[in-house]
């Protein structure tokens, strides 16, 4: 179920917000280039990685306990960017650009940072249309996190184009814009892959 017509047969032409609201609440729904796109909630490793990355970023840049603070970090916000409605896994705003949260269920201020956690059902959109949409909206920094490959790619926007930034694996400490004031190990995002996972398996 990836198009407006398959999810809402009465819809004619480009998808509307009413079409999006009609999607089963167990699915993540977006309007991308006029098309209603829906996909399942993420697999556990995807969800854990996203949650732990939010913890790392919020501790340093949200609450400012281990870093400089100055950011609002939100999990899966609904962003209205022109006619597109997208739901990134993680988005961040510098506080001066989002001094207060809107009362609406969505945010129409383009974020300064987006991280998409790649999965088989979303990677085509994350690398394709959504990456273009973020660039057109002026999102300054984009991270693509792949829990399957345990790999992080970073991109910085310059003159409307994405410049490829540093990439990171489990052997390289993550230190990248816009959060390069601190560093952390990518391995913290997959806690069940280390010795603790073996201990759990042996105990069962």
TrEMBL record:
Tell me the InterPro entries matching this sequence. Answer: Nuclease_put_TT1808, Restrct_endonuc-II-like, Uma2
Known Pfam families for this protein?
A: Uma2
The answer on whether this UniProt entry bears the keyword Nuclease reads yes
GO molecular function annotation: endonuclease activity
Cite the entry's keywords alphabetically: Endonuclease, Hydrolase, Nuclease
Write out the coiled-coil annotation as residue ranges.
none
Q: Which domain of life is it from?
A: Bacteria
- Asked if Glycosyltransferase is a keyword of the record, the answer is no
Q: Which residues does the UniProt record annotate as the domain Putative restriction endonuclease?
A: 16-187
Put simply, this protein is called Uma2 family endonuclease
Q: What is the lineage of its organism?
A: Bacteria, Pseudomonadati, Pseudomonadota, Alphaproteobacteria, Hyphomicrobiales
């Amino acid at each position: 179920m990836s198009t407006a017509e398959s999810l809402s047969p009465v819809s004619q032409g480009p998808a509307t917000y009413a079409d999006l609201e009609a999607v089963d609440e167990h699915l993540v729904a977006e309007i991308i280039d006029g098309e209603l796109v829906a996909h399942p909630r993420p697999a556990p490793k995807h969800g854990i990685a996203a949650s732990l990355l939010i913890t790392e970023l919020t501790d340093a840049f949200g609450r400012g306990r281990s870093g400089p603070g100055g950011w609002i970090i939100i999990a899966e916000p609904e962003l209205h960017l022109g006619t597109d409605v997208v739901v990134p896994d993680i988005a961040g705003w510098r506080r001066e650009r989002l001094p207060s949260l809107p009362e609406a269920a969505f945010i129409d201020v383009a974020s300064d940072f987006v991280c998409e956690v790649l999965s088989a059902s979303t990677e085509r959109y994350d690398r394709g249309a959504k990456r273009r949409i973020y660039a057109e909206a002026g999102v300054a920094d984009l991270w693509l996190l792949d829990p399957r490959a345990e790999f992080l790619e970073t991109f910085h926007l310059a003159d409307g184009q994405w410049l490829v930034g540093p990439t990171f694996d489990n052997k390289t400490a993550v230190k990248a814009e816009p959060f390069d004031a601190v560093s952390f190990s990518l391995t913290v995002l997959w806690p069940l892959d280390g010795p603790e996972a073996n201990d759990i398996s042996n105990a069962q």
